[in-house]
Design a protein that fits this description.
4-stranded antiparallel β-sheet; alpha+beta; binds heme C; Immunoglobulin-like; about 350 residues; 2 domains
Amino acid sequence: MRNLRQLSNHFIRFFLLGLALTTFSPQTTWSAPGNQGQDKAVRHHGVNVSFATKAAECGTCHKRQYQEWRYAAGADLDNGGAGSYHAISATENMYQVMLNTVGPDMQNYCRGCHEPGNAWAVVDKIANIPEPREENVEEGVNCMTCHFDGMRIVGKDEVRDPIFCATCHNENTGLVDVYEAWSYDYPGDKTCQQCHMESGNHAFPGFHSASFRQKAVSVSAPVFSPAPSAGVQFDIDFSIINDGTGHSVPEDLFRVFRVKVSVLNSFNEQVYSYEKTFYKRNELFGENPAETEIVRSGEEKRISCSNIALGPGLYTLKIELSQDSNRVNALLNVNLPMNSIYKTFVVE
Ligand code: HEC
Ligand code: HEC
Ligand code: HEC
Ligand code: HEC
Ligand code: HEC
């Protein structure tokens, strides 16, 4: 109970702060948030567009983008064709469950990112989020969220700027601060879009894509020292390197990144195991942020398994990386596989 209370106080504080800032920002004539431009006829290639325009209407001409966003056709997303996570951000079961456990103010806060109104109206994109939308809320983050500002269709040159993604992928609370991690830690030169929208793909693969989880963190070849021999203790050392993402692993406050090491004998019995976990600590859960252990973009972490002693035989070393989706609610949690290494060795 204490955690939930802290959580809501915290969220409400940021919700009010956000509201206060938007109230004083220059272009605020927001009486009905998200409705800007609705009564103005905004024309785009012969059709009227507004925040109420449905994705399927855009899809009549932009078939490919619509198919990718709506069905994530050809993408290896965990939801098997249910759509990009942007398209299901308002209808996803887990989101609905959580939304129904919080009060109306907090619901507005959640809806700001999951059922967003005018995203281009957000001035400080690093710290503030959109107002919730009132129309077509079931479409979540839809075409209009990224391509409409109330006055015109926003073209690809502008949406290619990573700062636009910060509108919802950063809010300075430690919950989702992806943009800042990318700005300060990432040693590479790719934008969010270059990794997450290869060839303009609108399926937006990420955590829920098996291939993205697979390439996120690499594992160096394990070193045995001294060479294993019966009755003599040895160590197994290796590194994990976050060289596949542009931000931290895990990046989301709710996730846990696990590095599991195990040794199996020739009967497939586990004779050694070691596990190291990485996750963000946050005051929301009564934790000390200074104790946070994550793998930042570009960072290499050394893992040492010491003093292993085995009898003669053939063994298999398994190094398995995975991520829990939700460390706060066990009922909602799933553990999803990432990169793994298997290696056989002999103890003489
Ligand atoms: C009647 C057909 C039609 C409909 C409906 C339509 N568009 Fe377009 N759109 C076009 C054409 C034609 C172009 C210019 C050629 C191109 O880039 O494909 C275009 C271009 C675009 C561009 C690229 C602009 C640029 O400068 O980068 C975006 C983004 C876009 N449309 C978004 C939308 C959205 C969002 C909707 C739904 C509100 C929509 N369109 C509905 C025909 C249409
Ligand atoms: C600042 C924008 C923002 C706000 C506000 C926000 N979310 Fe999210 N939410 C996200 C993003 C972005 C993700 C995708 C995961 C990530 O990047 O951390 C996400 C993911 C989720 C997920 C899916 C987790 C999974 O494992 O796939 C749920 C459920 C969820 N949010 C619920 C909520 C609820 C409930 C609230 C309000 C208390 C809320 N969110 C507020 C941006 C937001
Ligand atoms: C989360 C934000 C986001 C959403 C949602 C989104 N787009 Fe885009 N869209 C982009 C970005 C970013 C680009 C530029 C991609 C690139 O670099 O090629 C883009 C590019 C486009 C283009 C230009 C393609 C070209 O190469 O000329 C069209 C057309 C388009 N989107 C239509 C749509 C339609 C239709 C929908 C809804 C089904 C949609 N988008 C949903 C962010 C988004
Ligand atoms: C208006 C808010 C908003 C904007 C703008 C936005 N996103 Fe998202 N994005 C979300 C939310 C909310 C989720 C989580 C959906 C869920 O899981 O329920 C999400 C999820 C994602 C995911 C995770 C998919 C997965 O597999 O879990 C990726 C990747 C992503 N967004 C990339 C981008 C990029 C790149 C941009 C900029 C072009 C962008 N987003 C702009 C709100 C937004
Ligand atoms: C070098 C490629 C790369 C760049 C650059 C990059 N990402 Fe990612 N991103 C990934 C990979 C790989 C994953 C899967 C990581 C995992 O399994 O946790 C990911 C995961 C995500 C997720 C899902 C996090 C979660 O726990 O649900 C979101 C959201 C996201 N990225 C958004 C962004 C945004 C926004 C930017 C730019 C500020 C960005 N990414 C830059 C490769 C990249």
